[in-house]
Amino acid sequence: MEAATAHAEHHHGPPAANVSSRVEAQFLGMLLFIISEVMLFGAFFTAYFFVRVVAADDWFPINEVDLPKAIAGVNTAILISSSFTMHWALEGARNENRNALRVGLLTTALLGLTFLTIQVNEYVHLGFAPHDHAQGTIFYGLTGLHGAHVFVGLTLLTFATIRAFRGHFTAKEHRGVEVPGIYWHFVDVMWIFVYSTVYLL
Amino acid sequence: MLNPLRSEQEAFRFLLYVAVVMAVVVGIVLLVRALG
């Protein structure tokens, strides 16, 4: 038995039929998902740049209604902070620091929830609707698409947080935190592009 | 080479790079607009 185990550990042949030799299934799934998401956001950004080019100088403010850059800026800081807490949570998992893992995940989820709440509040007070003009359509389309991704990320984080409080995850086995973490950072990267192009430029 | 899809650590580093690069790009564009 020991000889067989030792042989398996030093085996350099092809992997089992259902196992990739390089990427674990959970990472491969998230990798393919994020690649498809980049294409989805790419389509929305294409529509956004089309509207910007066609409308020329007619971007916000429109009819004296401007985008709330400062509030969105604070929201951006909140979302980027949540990536730091996510990273802290994973470092906690790696170092068997259960408190850091739990508090990090919980803080990340709360910051994400705060971001989403502020965005919904922004929508309520904006003063224009998606059907008012093409600029409004693409604004709600792009920021709404991103908001939907934050919601998905929050769902993943909720599962990870519940598992962390139930005692799951160790220094060796923490894919349930790392995979949502990669997704969360991706969502933050997308927001940096959305905020920079839609609000600032 | 940095691959943000390989691990959370690299994804986090990629996020920081993007934040810095976009801050520089936005800064330059706003400066050029203000001067022009």
Task: Provide an overview of this structure.
With 201 residues, chain A is mostly helical. Chain A has a single domain, classed as Four Helix Bundle (Hemerythrin (Met), subunit A), CATH 1.20.120. The longest helix of chain A has 32 residues. Chain A is globular, with a radius of gyration of 21 Å. Chain B is mainly alpha-helical. Chain B is rod-shaped. The termini of chain B are far apart. Classes of the chains: A mainly alpha (201), B mainly alpha (36). The interface between A and B is medium-sized, with 23 and 17 residues.
Q: Can you give me a brief rundown of this structure?
A:
The complex is a heterodimer of chains A (201) and B (36). Chain A is mostly helical and 201 residues long.
Low-confidence blocks of residues of chain B: none
Average per-residue pLDDT of chain B, rounded, comes to 92
Tally of DSSP β-strands of chain B: 0
Estimate the global geometry of chain A from the Cα principal axes: globular
User: Which structural class do you get from the secondary structure elements of chain A?
Assistant: mainly alpha
Low-confidence stretches of chain A: none
**CATH superfamily label of chain A:** Cytochrome c oxidase, subunit III, four-helix bundle
What integer is the average pLDDT of chain A? 91
* Percent range for β-strand residues of chain A: under 5%
Helix content bin of chain A = over 70%
- Terminal Cα separation of chain B, in Å? 38 Å
Query: What about the largest sheet of chain B?
Result: none
Greatest interface: A-B, 23 and 17 residues
The helix/strand series of chain A, from N terminus to C terminus, equals HHHHHH
Oligomer: heterodimer
Query: Tell me, what's the shape of chain B?
Result: rod-shaped
Whole-number tally of structural domains of chain A: 1
Radius of gyration of chain B: 14 Å
CATH class of chain A: Mainly Alpha
